[in-house]
Amino acid sequence: MIGPGRARLPRGEGPWPWLAAGSVALSLLLLVGLLTLLAARGMGHFWPSPLTLVTLEDGRQLVGQAVREERLAHAEGRERLYLTANRDLDGAIWTWVAVEEIVAESRPHDLVVLERTRWGSFQGRLLALESAEGRVEGEAAWSALQARLEELAALRSERERLRDETVVPLVRRLEREPEVRGELARANARIRELQARMEGDTLWLESVDGRRLEQPLAQVLRAWRPNAMSTPQKLAAWGQGVWRFLSEGPRAANSAGGVWPAIFGTVLMVLLMSVVVTPFGVLAAIYLNEVAHQGRFTRLVRIAVRNLAGVPSIVYGVFGLGVFVYGIGGTLDEWFFADQLPSPTFGTGGLLWASLTLALLTLPVVIVATEEGLARVPDHQREGALALGATRVEMLTRVVLPMTAPAMLTGVILAVARAAGEVAPLMLVGVAKLAPQVPVDGEFPFLHLERKFMHLGYHIYDVAFHGGDVQAALPLVYATALLLVLVILVLNLTAIFLRHHLRARHGALPRR
């Protein structure tokens, strides 16, 4: 049965119901297509793609991963793009090959891929591993390499832990506590010891065209043979790659590594923004709808609030830079951090000013949504509460606001969806290209609002437009974009579930 105020057009009454249903279906189809594209292009980046050994008509050989194939623009035939890696040998990692020139293709099992900290990845053959214990060749070299890489990963993890948990906090305390200098020296000595244990081993590699390369093992992160891996092994490697992408920090100028600092910064900024904007937006809506005299001035204020929702976001960024960063932040530095000037503490972009700027940006959304919820509360609910002896404050807090809570959370959901994807204002008030230290740690006051932070949206922009190789950056752009969508989805679903809980508890209001 259709309730009051929910009358619908009958299906036979003109084409409008079918046009509306078709529009909904098309919107859902486009959304599914977008998510499928992001998932396929982004998550496929972590799958160990097979290496193809290509022999050309002139006798040359190359090894690489086939990326795509295109038709030649000014001639007949097609050409194929291969990811050949080996930047230190060839100066480039991409090679176009005319399909007609390919004589033979094969996938030898002895081809290896090395992920390195310098020069990108290497694709070729492993000849030998030299260490203090001697030289190992052939298949024994591959087994020894895997064992040594596990040892290097443990040493590298301990080194990073010492740096993040011991050295960095001690450096911050050094100016005000000179007695920590000895502890800092011991920590640095331990790091140098770990670094020395990581060095000394050498890999001898060979490209498929016969060129040899001497590779320090300390610069190698991982090694695998994609052509020799079974499907379960590839699936395990894919899962490990996704986990590293989610849990590690970026490296190589954001063109490799993970996005954990950007995930943490995005979620923390959105949560702080929500904590700030919700009470102010709700109080403003209560004043406009329940307290203020409903006259011309109130109508003008409502029009101004709605117009603020359409102001370009970069304008809010300029306002945040001038008022929050230089105005309030500069004043705080003069009052409380004068001994650290001219190096600013709060007088530069940071997490606090970014959250406040986005709170100001999304404030009109929360006000409008809350006002709509307040307007839907029937007047007899207010009159009944007052007739039973409740004061006006009790009527608002115990009757009106609980019934308006779903509408408030709707405003918060819209605010989160807009704020999480904003990039332009953040470029002015605190986001950083690289900030591997998250703003939360074990040092008092634990949450450092003055620090710069990384953001998923800005990370996408930086990787896509500021990298040296756009083609190589595309998979990371797709993966990060998918992750940003999922982060927004999780935040929104949390608010939606809370809204449904409140709606079930206090009763749903009929639509007008």
Alpha-carbon distance between the two ends: 17 Å
Give Rg in angstroms: 30 Å
The coarse overall form would be: globular
The residue-averaged pLDDT reads: 85
Low-confidence stretches: 1-5
Content-based structural category: alpha+beta
For this structure, the quaternary state is single chain
Number of strands: 13
Tally of helical segments: 14
User: How much strand content do the residues show?
Assistant: 5-15%
Largest sheet entry: 6 strands, antiparallel
Helical content (DSSP H or I, runs of 4+)? 55-70%
Order of helices and strands: HEEEHEEEEEHHEEEHEEHHHHHHHHH
Task: Tell me what the structure shows.
It contains 14 helices and 13 strands. The protein is an alpha+beta fold and 512 residues long. Strands 6, 7, 8, 9, 10 and 11 form a 6-stranded antiparallel beta sheet that branches. The protein has a 5-stranded antiparallel beta sheet with strand order 4-3-2-1-5, with no helix packed on it. The protein is globular and about 90 Å long. The two termini are 17 Å apart. Mean pLDDT is 85; it is low at 1-5.
Question: Outline of this structure?
Answer:
By secondary structure, this protein is an alpha+beta fold.
Q: Notable features of this structure?
A:
single chain; 512 residues; alpha+beta; six-stranded antiparallel β-sheet; five-stranded antiparallel β-sheet; 14 helices; 13 strands; 14% strand; disordered N terminus
